[in-house]
Amino acid sequence: MVRIHHALVVAVVLMAAACKGPASTGSAAAPAPPGVAVVTVRPERVEVTSEWLATLDGNVNAQIRPQVSGYLVTRNYQEGAIVRKGEALFDIDRRPFESALAQARAHLAEGRAQLAKADRDIARDRPLAEQRAIAQSQLDNDLSAHDAAQAAVESAQAAVDAAQLNLGFTRVTSLIDGVAAIATAQIGDLVGPTSLLTTVSQLDPIKAYFPLSEQEYLGIASQVGGSGGPSRLWQASGGLALVLADGSTHPKRGTVLAVDRQVDPKMGTIRISALFPNPGNVLRPGQGARVRAQTSVRTDALLVPQRAVAELQSGYQVRVLDAGNRVTTRVVSLGHRVGSRWIVESGLKAGDQVVVEGPAVKDGALVAPHPFVAPAGTE
Predict the structure, then answer these.
(1) Measured at the alpha carbon of residue 320, what is the angle toward residues 317 and 322, in degrees to the nearest 5?
(2) Contact 35/325 with Cβ under 8 angstroms?
(3) Cα distance between residue 98 and residue 101, in whole Å
(4) C-alpha distances in angstroms, 133 versus 121, 127, 130?
(5) pLDDT in tens, 188-203
(6) Which of 75, 101, 276, 344 can bridge 163 by disulfide, Cβ–Cβ 3.0-4.6 Å?
(7) Pairing assessment for the beta strands 171-173 and 178-180 based on DSSP bridges
(8) For residues 187 and 75, is the Cβ–Cβ distance under 8 A?
(9) Residue 312 confidence (pLDDT)
(10) How many CB atoms lie within 10 A of CB 323?
(11) Do residues 66 and 193 touch, judged by C-beta distance below 8 A?
(12) CB 199, CB 64: distance < 8 Å
């Protein structure tokens, strides 16, 4: 019985050892390094495009103001419609000016009568004075009266001319061909030379104003004063494009019209004006837009996706892998943006692997890189 019991104990011990398995010989295995998406930067040829915020305005804007004071009695144009130069837009009450013209004409007639009387007096008294039948002073008085009457006639004629002009000014006309704005004065308003009645703007072509930084201006300054002047700026690359508020691009290309005479000391910018064809007057003054132009071509640009760049108060940083796939943070300086990528001016060299996506890890951490695939529709 003792032998049987001992055999059972041995069997139980062996079974327990078999169930337990081999003993652990070391610590747990290290976790796999996290995966990151990387791009390898290589020199590329890219067309560098710049954009500037722009405000549209009429090529010519004529403020329509009356030249005489009076009450508005009619509005003769359709607001927002095209008007022609010389077309009557408003009428001011003519009656006071017709009365003033009639009075001026009456004064002119009176002056002419006085002049005629002076002519007759001279014709009568000159022979008598030569015959010494009357004193010479009498003829001198006649001559002075004639000169005074002649001056009075000229003054009265000037008053008639002024009255006729003022009467004509009661019809307020357009100074240019263009689109007339909504009237700012209503029928029955008392208006004068300081009253703005409406504005007429030439919209084809339309003008765009946009600011250039002082540094950008220095890059084009040598081209401004030469043959062709400002209009030749950026023409070699197809001219200026106009990007509208809805993201669409105006179908017509523009040209630079003028570069302002001075740099704004507060903003550090200089104003540029450009002209864009505007068939159908689709574009209107006051619209916001962006002017875009190809400013240069880079043949050795290093580009990284925008999402690979971290912006800090001290500047911009990217994460780069070393030869052992360990992460290192580098400070970089950025240039222009090309699509969804940035041109890196310094901080990287050709062949560097830049982390685009992946978990945040400390410098020196080991990672498992795989190629970054840009989403469809991005560069």
Answers:
(1) 150
(2) no
(3) 5
(4) 15, 8, 8
(5) 999 999 999 999 999 9
(6) 101
(7) unpaired
(8) yes
(9) 86
(10) 6
(11) yes
(12) yes
**Torsions phi, psi for 124 (to 5 deg):** -80, -40
* Section 81-103 average pLDDT: 95
Sheet with 88-92: strands ordered across: 171-173, 88-92, 70-75, 190-191
Closest alpha carbon to 241 in 69, 370, 52, 71? 52
For residues 176 and 87, give the distance between their C-alpha atoms in angstroms, rounded to a whole number.
Answer: 9
81 alpha-carbon distance from chain centroid: 24
Q: Which residues pair with 190 in a beta bridge?
A: 71
d(CA 178, CA 59) in angstroms, rounded, equals 10
How many whole angstroms separate alpha carbon 97 and alpha carbon 68? 10
List the structure tokens of 87. 């077309």
What is the dihedral sign for C-alpha 67, 69, 70, 72?
positive
φ/ψ of 231, rounded to 5, equals: -65, -20
Q: Is the pLDDT of residue 222 over 90?
A: no
Rounded-to-integer distance, Cα 222 and Cα 213, Å = 15
- Tokens standing for residue 335: 């240039």
DSSP codes, 314-337: TEEEEEEE-TTSBEEEEEEEEEEE
Residues 68 and 167: their CA atoms lie apart, in Å, by 9
Backbone angles phi, psi at 222, to 5 degrees: -70, -20
Q: Name the residue type at position 187.
A: I
Q: Which residues pair with 40 in a beta bridge?
A: 353
- Tokens for 55, please give them: 């405000």
Helix H segments across the chain? Answer: 2-20, 95-130, 136-169, 214-224
Q: Which residues, 6 or more positions from 89, have their beta carbon under 8 angstroms from its beta carbon?
A: 64, 75, 76, 77, 83, 172, 173, 174, 180, 197, 198
Token match 């830049």: residue? 354
pLDDT digits (tens, 9 = 90+) for 38-87: 999 999 998 888 899 999 999 999 999 999 999 999 999 999 999 999 99
| Residue matched to tokens 């032998």 | 3
* Rounded (10°) angle between helices 136-169 and 95-130: 160
